[in-house]
Every structure is written in structure tokens, then in C-alpha cells.
């Protein structure tokens, strides 16, 4: 029944473990490290995989499972693993798919933490990372070798808001039997359904829009069911494919990686995510509507040199229509005269908060070049779009007139 519901309904209802016939409307916080059984036989059967049961919360927990089922259902996936952070979801996915001497192809335009994970951790374990211009299909094609194990990119990158031709990349990957991993944090399952467009695995930092109010750190990965893991050239995934078939990736990622690196989220944090996601559809509509109005206002302001917003870009608007249900999302970036002007603008604001995250009910601003990208070389800052004169905005849910008034004050005051 739950699978047949529309998006808004799916984000409210999910399967819950039935415990002693108590029926709470929202899965409560099972804040336990471990769960007991009356007999040795019961616990033996759970360990052997003959029965399902909760044992230890690093491995599984009722609050976490309920959220995983909901998010998987929203993505039309075959399985989901909720993790302690977005970075943990990316790490779990990559450790499950890679071994030494493998290569990965990824976009030059990624979240700063992801690039640091690739460069400072993965590369130390014999993984070669090939960064490409993700809007250039030929460049991706030329980067593929027989050792390429996956292609990784973001639906909408920030701060420069690049949207790749997702279907073009998926088609290329299919021809070469390579899974496509997409970080959909900025688009959420409401704007983008990875399953529909052939993506293999979708990743979210649930810290952002899915929870919606900067209350917790969390992440998730979802197997869409599009990729046939029985054909994936990795000995562990092959081993799991013999027993679990289509579920080879998710069972391998869970049993060999997630459990062993210890990235289970705190049940209370997952409870807040489960609460937040109930209103995801409503919020993404409003974030997108507010962002469009703010981007339009900025376009006409005399002190603003350039505005980045997918719905205002002639090239990208076709992708917004095709992939994102015609919604541009909540991130807007813009260029001012120079760094001093950007700092002055941020310091002049009274309502919007100067913060490093995105996806909050509040409007957030940041100067990426001096913060998230501070350690990057000047050349890499330019590639990332973290220009010295650029301000990134995560547009919140306040009344748009209050946001525009605040920005007007910030831009006009000397
Ligand atoms: C925030 C973010 C991440 C990392 O998520 P955390 O929850 O901070 O670990 C990854 N990708 C994108 C696009 C993000 O915005």
C-alpha cells in the first residue's frame, strides 16, 4: 500500500515495527544500544539470518529502520542505509564499491568535504580519482578505462550551480557497465528521482533539506535498483550477489562496511529527520519559490554583477524542466564588485545568518572563497566557482518580502 502513495503521503507514512500493540503515529526514539531475547534459540536464528530482529544499534535499530524504509520508498529504491552524516553515506558507498587500483571519475564541482575525502583519504588507499568537467560528455568518455568503477557527481553543484546532463552520463555509463552515483542533497527526492533517470545510487546529506532546520547531522544512501550488481567486477559484491542477487550492493554495504566502520546515526537524530521529512514537499516548493523571487530581485540590482540560479540560465532551464520537476531549488549565488563588497554585504544583513550549511528554514549566506574553499589553490577556487566576489545564499522559508528587504539593506548600505 505504502508503495502506491503519492510523494507527500509517502513522506508522512512508513512501516513501523509493531511492538506490544502500541501504535504511535510517528516511530518513537528507541534510544537503546542493544535488545534482548528470551531464548538462546531466538538470538541464534537472528544471527544466522533465518529470523529478523534487532540486536545492537550499530547494526540496526527500529527508529533508524523506519526512516530508511520511508526514504527508500520516496526514492522508489530497493534499499536505504541511514548514516551519521552525509560524508558517512559517501564513505560507506565508496568503500563498498572500491578496492585498491580502482579508478573513479567525478565532477570537479563537488562539495568541499567530498573532494577532501577523495584527495586526503581514498587516494591514500590506492584509488585514482579523475576529476572531469561534468558537463562535457566527451571528457568523461575519454577518462573511462577498464579500471573505472564508478562515476560520481552532484545534481546541482554549489556555489556555482552546475547541472550535468544526467541522462547523457547515464547512457555513457550504461554502455561501459559503470554504476552512476549521484549526490542529490540540493535537489532532495522531491525535485529529483534518480531511479527514473537511470542513476544507480542516490546519496543525501539529510542534515540539509530532509531535516530542514539545521538541528542534526545525518546522511543516507539509496540503491535505486537500476544497476545489475551481478555484473559488477568486485569480488565482495560478486560474493554478495550469489546470495542476495539484486540486493548485493545494499547488503554488502551494510554488512561489510556500515557495521564495521561504525557510522550508525543516533536514533534521536533519525527521529528528527523522520519528523522533518514529513513536510519536505511543502518546504521544497517554498524554498524554490522564494529562491526564484530573490534571484530575480538580485538580477535587477545595480550592485550585483551576476546571478546564478538554474531557472534564470538559458542553458540549464531545460535540465530543470527535464530532471527537477521545473523547480530550481533553494540555492542562489551572486557576484558583487569584489571581496570587500561581499563582506560588507554579509555584515550589513540583519535577518539572514552567516552560516556554512544549506537547507535551513532560515536564510543563510556565506562567502565560500574564504570559508569552505579557503584551503583550495586560487586555480581550484576558480574551478569550484568560489570567486572572491561571490556570495552563496541558501534561501529560507521566511516571507520573501522580509528576505528581499534584508538583502536590499545589505546591498545599499555603505
Ligand atoms: C553537506 C553536504 C555533504 C556532506 O554532508 P554532511 O551531512 O555535512 O556530512 C555532502 N554533499 C553535499 C552536496 C552537501 O551539501
Keywords:
alpha/beta, five-stranded mixed β-sheet
Structure description:
- α9 crosses α10 (248-261).
- The chain is globular and about 75 Å long.
- The chain has helices at 7-10, 40-47, 62-74, 86-97, 112-120, 137-143, 166-175, 188-191, 235-244, 248-261, 267-276, 280-299, 317-323, 339-348, 378-384, 400-412; strands at 79-83, 103-107, 128-132, 148-154, 180-183, 201-205, 219-223, 306-308, 331-335, 353-354, 364-366, 390-394.
- The strands form two sheets. It has a seven-stranded mixed sheet, sandwiched between helices. The protein has a five-stranded mixed sheet with strand order 8-9-12-11-10.
- It is 38% helix and 13% strand.
- Bound molecules: pyridoxal-5'-phosphate.
- The site of pyridoxal-5'-phosphate has 16 residues, from α4 and α5.
Topology:
Elements: H1 7-10, H2 40-47, H3 62-74, E1 79-83, H4 86-97, E2 103-107, H5 112-120, E3 128-132, H6 137-143, E4 148-154, H7 166-175, E5 180-183, H8 188-191, E6 201-205, E7 219-223, H9 235-244, H10 248-261, H11 267-276, H12 280-299, E8 306-308, H13 317-323, E9 331-335, H14 339-348, E10 353-354, E11 364-366, H15 378-384, E12 390-394, H16 400-412
Amino acid at each position: 500500500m505504502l508503495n502506491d502513495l503519492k510523494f507527500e503521503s509517502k513522506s508522512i507514512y512508513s512501516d513501523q515495527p509493531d511492538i506490544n500493540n502500541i501504535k504511535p503515529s510517528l516511530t518513537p526514539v528507541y534510544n537503546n544500544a542493544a535488545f534482548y531475547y528470551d531464548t538462546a534459540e531466538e538470538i541464534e536464528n537472528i544471527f544466522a539470518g533465518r529470523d529478523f530482529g534487532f540486536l545492537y544499534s550499530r547494526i540496526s535499530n527500529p527508529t533508524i529502520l523506519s526512516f530508511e524504509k520511508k526514504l527508500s520508498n520516496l526514492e522508489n529504491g530497493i534499499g536505504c542505509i541511514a548514516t551519521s552524516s552525509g560524508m558517512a553515506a559517501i564513505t560507506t558507498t565508496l568503500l563498498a564499491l572500491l578496492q585498491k587500483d580502482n579508478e573513479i571519475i567525478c565532477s570537479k564541482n563537488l562539495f568541499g568535504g567530498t573532494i577532501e575525502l577523495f584527495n586526503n583519504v581514498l587516494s591514500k588507499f590506492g584509488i585514482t580519482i579523475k576529476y572531469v568537467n561534468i558537463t562535457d560528455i566527451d571528457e568523461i568518455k575519454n577518462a573511462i578505462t577498464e579500471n573505472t568503477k564508478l562515476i560520481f557527481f552532484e545534481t546541482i553543484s554549489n556555489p556555482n550551480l552546475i547541472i550535468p546532463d544526467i541522462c547523457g552520463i547515464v547512457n555513457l555509463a550504461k554502455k561501459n557497465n559503470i554504476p552512476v552515483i549521484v549526490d542529490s542533497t540540493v535537489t532532495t527526492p522531491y525535485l529529483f528521482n534518480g531511479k527514473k533517470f537511470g542513476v544507480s545510487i542516490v546519496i543525501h546529506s539529510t542534515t540539509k533539506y530532509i531535516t530542514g532546520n539545521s538541528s542534526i547531522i545525518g546522511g543516507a544512501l539509496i540503491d535505486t535498483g537500476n544497476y545489475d550488481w551481478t555484473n559488477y567486477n568486485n569480488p565482495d559484491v560478486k560474493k554478495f550477489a550469489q546470495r542476495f542477487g539484486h540486493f548485493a550492493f545494499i547488503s554488502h554495504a551494510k554488512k561489510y562496511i556500515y557495521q564495521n566502520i561504525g557510522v550508525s546515526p543516533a536514533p534521536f537524530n533519525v527521529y528528527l529527520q523522520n519528523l522533518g521529512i514529513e513536510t519536505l514537499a511543502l518546504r521544497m516548493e517554498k524554498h524554490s519559490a522564494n529562491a526564484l523571487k530573490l534571484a530575480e530581485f538580485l538580477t535587477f540590482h545595480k550592485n550585483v554583477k551576476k546571478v546564478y540560479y538554474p531557472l534564470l540560465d538559458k542553458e540549464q532551464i531545460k535540465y530543470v524542466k527535464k530532471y527537477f520537476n521545473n523547480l530550481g531549488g533553494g540555492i542562489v549565488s551572486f557576484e558583487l564588485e569584489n571581496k570587500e563588497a561581499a563582506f560588507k554585504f554579509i555584515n550589513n544583513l540583519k535577518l539572514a545568518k552567516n552560516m556554512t550549511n544549506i537547507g535551513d528554514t532560515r536564510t543563510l549566506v556565506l562567502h565560500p572563497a574564504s570559508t569552505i574553499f579557503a584551503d583550495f589553490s586560487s586555480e581550484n577556487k576558480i574551478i569550484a566557482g568560489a570567486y572572491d566576489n561571490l556570495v552563496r545564499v541558501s534561501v529560507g522559508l521566511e516571507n520573501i518580502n522580509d528576505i528581499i528587504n534584508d538583502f536590499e539593506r545589505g546591498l545599499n548600505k555603505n
